[in-house]
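ligand=iron/sulfur cluster
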Amino acid sequence: MSILRMSKTLIKNLLHGPFTIAYPLKKKETYERTRGSIGISIDDCIFCGMCERRCPTNAIRVDKARVSWSIERLQCIQCGYCTEVCPKKCLDMENQYTEPSFGTVRDVHIKCTNTQSPSES
Amino acid sequence: MGNRTIVPFGPQHPVLPEPIHLDLVLEDETVVEAVPRIGYVHRGLEKLVEKRDFQQYTYVAERICGICSFMHGMGYCMSIESIMGAEIPDRAKFLRTIWAEFSRLHSHLMWLGLLADAFGFESLFMQSWKLREEVLDVFEETTGGRVIFSVCDIGGVRKDIKKETLEKILGVLDRMEKELTEIAGVFLNDSTVKLRTRGVGKLSKEAAFELGALGPMARASGIEMDMRTQGYAAYSQLDFKPIIDLEGDSYARTKVRLGEMFQAMDLIRQCIGKMPEGDIKVKITGSPKGEYFTRLEQPRGEVLYYVKANGTKFLDRVRVRTPTFANVPALLETLKNCSLADVPILILTIDPCISCTER
Ligand code: SF4
Ligand code: SF4
């Protein structure tokens, strides 16, 4: 009967239960390639500014004098171009997204160059 | 003859999340004329080419549309490659074809869901989108993104697909094909669904040709036009034929799109079977100089890319003519003499993508 075409699918669905993931209780697995957010190993960075110049959204700021590297999280589009152009390969694409937020978020990383322990600086 | 009434449709309408506005001139319940207005989501992406160099613009081109993102990136990259005379490796061509066909699959599945939603068949909508989720998972696994992939690059592709993943994809396709056959049966044979689509919004072959309809819209009216037959990417090495139908109504358009989904699965299988080994990218040096037109087949029809480069890092002009834009005149034609209740379905059957139309 042509009006009961959907019944088989519907009965299968009833028996199966939800196909969606019960989110806060269960998290979706990420894949190895999932583009979540940009991470940096600041100790390897030479502050050449390549990532800043190439980033299509101008999300990255590099300050050689202050040895700081910072990224505007909401401006970054997770394209991964910076990870490709970095000569030291110190940027990488992490699988996890950053926390949701209401305002702009600038993550600043400063390389520790003095010999004192970080707590004193 | 009754009085004429004008009913505004959109820019915000429950049936489609995209902003298009139509003034529907009604006589009783019948539409006699529709006047479209767009311009609500113009983002100036073509202008942006002056501020971003040609390599950065790859990422911008992809973001023209959220559904055919891969094919926009591909069209742009193909234009630059042609200007620079770069021949991309064979493996890259096949990888591009796989992603392009998966994009078609996901776009058509989304459209099926929206169509079901438009005639109020909620569970069919959920079924289509459930299937689409599997395609998005394949995208996430192979490219890292679910909607924007950032894998197409000038000179090839950025990421390879491993052999195990390709085998996994074959498994996913088999599973999907079974489920899609089931819901395709509902779309094509269920009598309530047929009541809403059969004979609604007829577009004759002549009218489709005159009005410049493209893609599934033209093919459902019997025009055999599919840019993939030009043989860009790996299509020249694959075996396929454009799917056409002669009826030209909403039912025919549904049928053509369903046929294209099965065809996409078949093309992906062919690609995986014929996939050559080797590099995925050639190195590009220097800046492009010259101009080029690229035509390729997106899920919604033919997209046209025009790129003009002057030998510096910044391009002079990028122009994109998207398929929805070309399909609007055909839509207005189908709207004439339809009843008000059919308007949402008719607008959906051109598979409108307003964001990419306005760029
Ligand atoms: S490109 Fe790499 S090394 Fe250079 S500033 Fe950026 S992160 Fe540091
Ligand atoms: S991922 Fe792209 S947008 Fe984000 S910081 Fe890197 S280059 Fe910029």
